C-alpha cells in the first residue's frame, strides 16, 4: 500500500482567535469565551489566560479566581461557523479529501496531490499562510503518514506551529511519546497503564500485545498499534464534492495578461489530471476562474458550460479575458476549476397559490 500523506490542521484557540481578530482591544489581555455568569463554563480561552491556568470547560468562577483580570465575552457560534466555512473552503481548494472533526480542525489526505512539488510539508505551510492572510487567524498543522501521528504533530508546536513526522522518524518519535498523548487514553486508562509500568509508547511496546489485550480488551490492540505509530484509518469525506479546482501561487508575480495565458494551459492540464483521478463520474455544470493580484485582492468568475467533458485552455480563455480588465496588472495567483451538476437534487415546480 502506498505511503499516505496526511495533514491535520487545528485552529489556535479558535473562538478566542475570532474575538481577538474582530476586536483588537482583546489581543493583549487574558480572554475567555463563555463563563461570564455565575454558573457558566469557559468554552475556550486565549494563551494569555492559559498562562494563569485557565482551561476549557472550567467554571467561570474558578477561571476568575485564577486570573482576576480575565475578560469574558459570550459565545457567538453563528459567527464562528462562518469563519470555519472560510477555512474549510481553503482546505478543499487543495484536496477534496477533507474530514472536518469540528468547526476548528480537520484531516486532509494529500497523498495524490501534485501541487507544491507533491510535498505535504509545503502544502501545510501554504494552507497556514493562506488562512492567516485571508481569514486573519492562525492554525497549527501536523504532517505524518497517518491520522494518529498527524493529530499529535499538530499539537507539538502550538500555537501557530508546523511539525512533521517523516516515515523514517516514526519509531524514534513514538518511543518517547507519553501514553497520555494516545487517542482514548484519559486519566483512568493512563493510571492503569502506569500501574503496569508503562509511561511511554516504548514501555507499551515492551509490554506486548497479549498483555494489553488481557487488560484492555479490544482497546489493548489499538493501544499496541498506536504505540508502534500505526493507524490505517482513512480520511473520511462526509460531504459530496461539488467542485474540483487547481490553483498556482507564483514566487514572482506574473507581469501581465499574456503571462497568465501562458500558464493557463498547464493549469488546465493539472485540472484534467485531478478530474481523471475522480473518474469523471459527474457531469460538469460550470467552469470558474480565480485571480489574486499582487495587492492580494481576489476576483472570481464562473459561467455555465454543460457540454464539456475535458475542459481545455480554449474553454477558460474567454473567462480569463472577461475577468481581467487591466491586462498589465501583476498577478500573484491563478486558479481554475469546474462545478458539477447535482442530478440527485429534487426538481420540483412550486404551485403558484400554495
Protein model, in words:
With 354 residues, the protein is α+β, with helices and mostly antiparallel strands. Helix content is 38%, strand content 20%. It is built from 13 helices and twelve strands. It has a five-stranded mixed sheet. Strands 9-12-10-11 form a four-stranded antiparallel sheet, with helices on one face. Strand 10 and strand 11 (298-304) form a beta hairpin. The longest helix has 21 residues, at 257-277. The N and C termini lie far apart (57 Å).
Give the overall form.
globular
Strand content: 15-25%
Estimate the mean pLDDT confidence.
89
Number of strands: 12
Radius of gyration: 24 Å
Instruction: Enumerate the spans where pLDDT stays under 50 for 5 or more consecutive residues.
Output: 346-354
How far is it from the N-terminal to the C-terminal residue, by CA? Answer: 57 Å
Describe the strand arrangement of the main beta sheet, using strand numbers: 5-6-1-7-8
Count of individual helical segments: 13
Secondary-structure element pattern, one letter each: EHEEHHEHEEHEHEHHHHHEHEEHE
Structural class: alpha+beta
Give a quick account of the main beta sheet: strands, pairing sense, barrel closure: 5 strands, mixed
Q: Kindly state the percentage of residues in helix.
A: 25-40%
